[in-house]
Amino acid sequence: MKPAESPDEAKAAAGFLRRRVVSVRRPLAWVALAQFAQAALMIPQYGLLAAALDRALFAGAGLDALWPLLAPVPALILLRAGLTWLAEVLAQGAGASVRRAVRDAVAARMLALGPVRLGDDAAGGLGALLVEGVEALDAYYSRFVPAMRLAVLVPLGLLAVVFPLDWMSGVILLVTAPLIPLFMALIGAGAERLNRRQWAQLARMGGHFLELIQGLTTLSLFNAAEAQAGAVGRIAEEYRVATMAVLRMAFLSALALEFFATLGVALTAVLIGFRLLGGELGFERGLLILLLAPEFYAPLRNLGVQYHARMEALGTAGRLAALLDAPLPAAPAVPAVPPQRAPEIVFDRVRLEYAPGRVGLDAASFTLPAGRITALVGPSGAGKSSAVTLLLGFAPATAGEIRVDGVPLSSFVLDQWRARIAWVPQRPHLFAGSVADNLRLGCPDADPDAMQAAMAAVGAEALLESLPAGLDTRLGEDGAGLSGGQARLIALARAALRPAPLLILDEPAASLDGESEAALLRALPALAAGRTVLLIAHRPATIGAAERRVRLEAGRVAAVEEEVG
Ligand SMILES: Nc1ncnc2c1ncn2[C@@H]1O[C@H](COP(=O)(O)OP(=O)(O)OP(=O)(O)O)[C@@H](O)[C@H]1O
Fold first, then answer.
1. Domains of the chain and any CATH numbers
2. Which keywords has UniProt assigned to this entry (predicted)?
């Protein structure tokens, strides 16, 4: 996804943030109430202090006379502290709940879109979006939204108190207050653009870092690690420049806010001072207004401080909105039930065009007969994986149709259809966890006996014996701790364990030694029993294990060979 730059995308970002306020409306209402109550208690607190000082200074009152005025003050301070704490806890809860909901939604969307539709996004960029991007939303909901409400409620409330006390001070507050939001809005537009740029740099840097880590071996071997590290360094420098621009803007706006707020307080103080001297205003009243004046500007200044939270959230919301609004594969109007038994699959003049000019399959017609092993063969780029991409529902056919027992593939609900498929991709992924955890992905309620049988079925008994804790052996991320061939054997056992009538194997013997390959090929008929098998194969031995061979060339079927006898 590109950085959110156009006005439409900026609007989508703001809409995205607003829509989510609704989901935390209740806790945020409580936050506003607690904060407003906390601010309201300031009035009796300062009122009592002003009265006590007035009596002490001008009426010579002793501690006995002042005691009833001062006694409630500590209780008011404690109560205000309690309310501040409560508002903070509630605000943090609201922020956390939005983050959780957005992360769940983004993760679900990524799963629903699948690898082909997500293809434009570098993994690092998506990772940054899920982690830092969602994190940036927190302060918007836990700080900015409450600050915005308080910036309206408290000044209005205080004006209602100050006007009856002294209309002149009321007018000064009323006139100077709008200058702060006005100035904020003026610099806001520039800050928004800078924040989006900063975010785009961060996503780019994430992508480069991930590539650097994933490709470390290749880069070291080609002596290119330094060049790549240099590229990361350059991007980090660009990120620093973008960040400094954001900070400069933040400091500039803070300076302006402080200036206007201080000016307002100073103006109020000077006018109160003159009128105190002239005897036009009582001391108690003047002092109370003077104590309240900074509190009048405080929520507005706080809003200015929290404004960068909005900018930061807007910087990532555009990308989150684009991801969450990306069109999902259309669900069938009248879903069909996918087959329970080995199906016959027909590709009927199927075309897959990933993007204009990027053709994976071109009017390809072939059949995978029910219960038999069909090999898709052909040179690299011929369209073999594209056929699998279509079967797995990661992309829809651009033209033509795939039928499963005569029913169009598009009439199945994707999840239900995928539940009927056992798949071993070219580079199978193993997750951090035990071997058993990885096997159970294929069949969640498989018991240890079934798992051992599955390992035996793919000729992996020797591997199982060599693992220090057998099925309970812990694996690192992406099967770290296993060789490529060992990881493939576990992925094959995972597919063997899955009770699915369609088995798709993408070059199953890749990275296996001769002995393991022979064991796997011996096990293949048992593995394939009762299933329709699609085998992508390059190696002659693997191709030989198939009963039918469909040769693809440049996305088209070049030949179909049937085993005789
Ligand atoms: N996600 C994608 N986006 C754009 N083009 C793609 C994508 N995946 C594959 N292609 C293109 O589609 C064509 C067929 O690729 P495919 O991966 O299906 O070939 P293959 O026969 O499986 O090759 P190999 O044996 O190397 O795996 C290629 O020209 C490839 O560049």
1. 7-325 (1.20.1560.10), 345-562 (3.40.50.300)
2. ATP-binding, Membrane, Nucleotide-binding, Transmembrane, Transmembrane helix
